[in-house]
Design brief:
The protein is α/β, with parallel strands linked by helices. The chain has 17 helices and 16 strands. The termini are far apart.
């Protein structure tokens, strides 16, 4: 029997598109994702991610936990005002104060949603809530009723739902829907369930809850056993029609179901998964890189869909097969997730036209001046690096975008390091058009650089994070550096890229410092030297 060749560029529908069942994509990168230790985002970064998610085509953006802090409230409120297409949700515990605060935060959204929850498992009720089931049931009714009086779209979640007794879960779900919940979420809060169990829970609820047809059921899976995506798809088979997920699968502990993996599973296996969604899959790689950058959480090389090796083939057998027919070892095209199919080799002899085409291919739309600045930096890089990879260009342009409008610039840097010591750095900064130079020593070259910056631009920010990773392979690879500074309980992150790790470090620290200054002084811009602490 001859094998049928399938066109992997197509959606491969098993039924006409009109017959496919629509699935709501609920993204919680800004809420559950940000709860990952060390993944906190600044106000500006949250807005940037929200804009990307809205453009990506997710249906619901869970923007944060408004009661958690004033900063979270402000971020949710700002996102609610600026998002053009998606619903904007905020999370609220089972208390009047939480729900009212959440309602206030999302009220300006085109489609506001309050997402409220309470624990329902015996373990959580006994040790976390210290309440009887009857008390928890009353909480469900009162919290949903209160939320529904504020907004029309209310989601209720049974925290630790997969370890909840079925009889009690049915009672809670029926009560929540009767009180006005439009979406019912049964989360696998601790990543405990397996696909067969999870599917059975949703089938059971549809069969036993009298008013189940009046609400949309939702899946929310954690990845503690590596089953988040598998459980998510099983939930759909059981009747759920909303998927809660995060970009890159970030989230508490082992993370959440990864948005990019769920979306591409639905697209690639549309022959057996008869569902549709509104996500533009060609933007998945851009979204992944943005979230990885703002959280300083690098994506593992072998991560499905968006990992650096997801479309890489080193084995001779695999390469031979790929040359004959890409479908031998690729079940989806790189272009379908926003990755260039073939790497256009760029170097010092490449011209502006080729560079512009490469930017377009990588998904960047820049003005003429920005293209010219990026081309100049590309040429400088090409003089120092033999092979320019796509990742090099992306890092270069992302770094340029991150430093646009900067008022402090790294002009020159000389570092002396080695075993003899002391390590010294001589740094020249351009501050509001004025060149200033300082030499400083430190416990290592990076410490010396940061000490020089502090001497030139005094501040009291505390270094919380310093992270370096190579953009590509080889000893001449560009370094991408993330620096996080904290002041008065608020954190900012700056990023820098350069083939010289020390230069990238200086650029990243300066970028973070500028954000710190901007946050401290939100009024009309004054000269930076006047705004710095003595």
């Amino acid at each position: 029997m001859s094998a049928e060749i399938i066109d992997i560029n197509s959606a491969q529908p098993a039924a006409p598109a009109s017959d496919k069942q629509r699935v709501i994509i609920f993204d919680t990168t800004l809420r559950d994702g940000e709860q990952s230790p060390g993944a906190s985002m600044t106000f500006e970064e949250k807005l940037e991610v929200a804009d990307m998610l809205d453009e990506l085509g997710v249906d619901v953006i869970e923007a944060g936990f408004p009661i958690a802090s004033e900063g979270d409230f402000e971020a949710v409120s700002a996102i609610a005002r600026r998002v053009k297409n998606a619903s904007v949700a905020g999370l609220a515990r089972a208390s009047a104060k939480d729900i009212d605060r959440c309602g206030e935060a999302v009220r300006h959204a085109r489609k506001p949603r309050i997402h409220t929850f309470v624990s329902t498992s015996p373990l959580h009720m006994k040790y976390k809530l210290q309440k009887e089931p009857s008390e928890v049931l009353e909480m469900v009714i009162s919290q949903v009723t209160r939320a529904r009086n504020l907004v029309e779209d209310v989601e209720w979640s049974a925290e630790d739902g997969t370890r909840t007794e079925h009889d009690f879960l049915c009672r809670c779900v029926e009560a929540a829907i009767k009180a006005g919940a439009t979406t019912i979420n049964i989360p696998d809060t601790v990543g405990y369930t397996v696909p067969e169990e999870y599917e059975a829970i949703f089938r059971m609820l549809h069969e036993r809850v009298p008013n189940a047809g009046k609400a949309i059921f939702s899946v929310h899976c954690h990845n503690d056993l590596g089953l988040a995506v598998a459980n998510t798809l099983a939930g759909l088979a059981g009747g759920a029609r909303q998927i809660e997920c995060t970009v890159n699968g970030i989230g508490e502990r082992a993370g959440n179901a990864a948005l990019e993996e769920v979306v591409m599973a639905l697209r690639t296996r549309a022959d057996v998964l008869n569902y549709s969604n509104g996500v533009d899959s060609t933007m998945l790689m851009r979204a992944s890189r943005l979230v990885a950058g703002v959280t300083s959480f690098p994506v593992q090389y072998n991560k499905a869909i968006v990992g650096r090796n997801a479309f890489a083939h080193e084995s001779g057998i695999h390469q031979d097969g790929m040359l004959k027919n890409a479908q031998t070892y690729e079940i989806m095209t790189p272009e379908s997730v926003g990755v260039s199919k073939t790497s256009l080799v760029m170097g010092k002899h490449s011209g502006r036209h080729a560079f512009k085409e490469k930017l377009k291919e990588l998904g960047y739309t820049l003005g003429d001046n920005a293209v010219e600045d990026a081309f100049k930096r590309f040429k400088d890089l090409a003089d120092r690096k033999k092979i320019i990879y796509d990742e090099d260009i992306e890092a270069l342009v992302d770094d340029q975008i991150g430093h646009s409008g900067e008022r402090i610039k790294v002009e020159a840097l000389t570092v002396i390091a080695g075993t003899m010591g002391p390590q010294t750095a001589t740094l020249t900064l351009d501050i509001d058009g004025q060149h200033v130079t300082k030499q400083a020593v430190g416990n290592g070259p990076v410490d010396a650089i940061f000490n020089a910056i502090k001497a030139l631009a005094p501040h009291e920010g505390k270094l919380e994070l310093y992270k370096v990773h190579a953009v590509t392979e080889g000893t001449d690879a560009q370094a991408e550096v993330s620096v996080r500074l904290a002041e008065d309980g608020r954190s900012v992150t700056g990023r820098g890229a350069d083939p010289d790790t020390m230069v990238a470090s200086a650029r990243a620290y300066v970028a973070a410092l500028e954000k710190l200054i901007a946050r401290r002084q939100k009024g009309a811009p004054a000269p930076i030297t006047a705004r710095l602490k003595p």
